[in-house]
Amino acid sequence: GNVDAGGTNSIPVELADCEFGVTRVQRTQPYLMRLANMSPINTMYAQWAEQENPDGTVTAVTQGSTKPQIDFDWVEKSQKVEKIAAFIKITKEMLADLPGVRNEIDTELRELVLLKADDDLWDGNGTTPNIKGITQFATAYSAPVGLIDIDNNYDVLRAGIAQVVENKFMPNYIVMH
Length: 177
Prior knowledge:
Blueprint (H helix, E strand, L loop, with lengths): L31 H4 L9 E11 L15 E10 L17 H26 L10 H4 L15 H14 L11
Antiparallel strand pairs: 1-2
């Protein structure tokens, strides 16, 4: 009966229902990480091989004749693995609700790390400790000359897809602002 709420215009805790959890800061959601090919790694460098310099052509031949040779070079590539990290401090009082605090910290850190990774995946400059992002690798868009009339956004997208295909790749996503 004689419960005073702390502060003004507040309801006594004992008389109010409390929503579980914490109302979080609203942020954009990471999206590029969902589009990227990823795999775990436990070494300092990622290594892979790429085909380069293809030679020869496939052609029709008669029975018993010499077949044309085709080949390519295998080129070893490597890239230093970079890290994105952060931590959050808590107070002794927060230990009273360790499962709830842990959930909030895991959610917050995961979101912030993924947002930073997403940003770097898009526009990282490649200087350690940053990864080299898509905009550093990608060929700049160039509008085709005389091939199609660029009348609307759809035409621009078609022209961009054509440019990717012309460079021997198959586009599988379009990312737009």
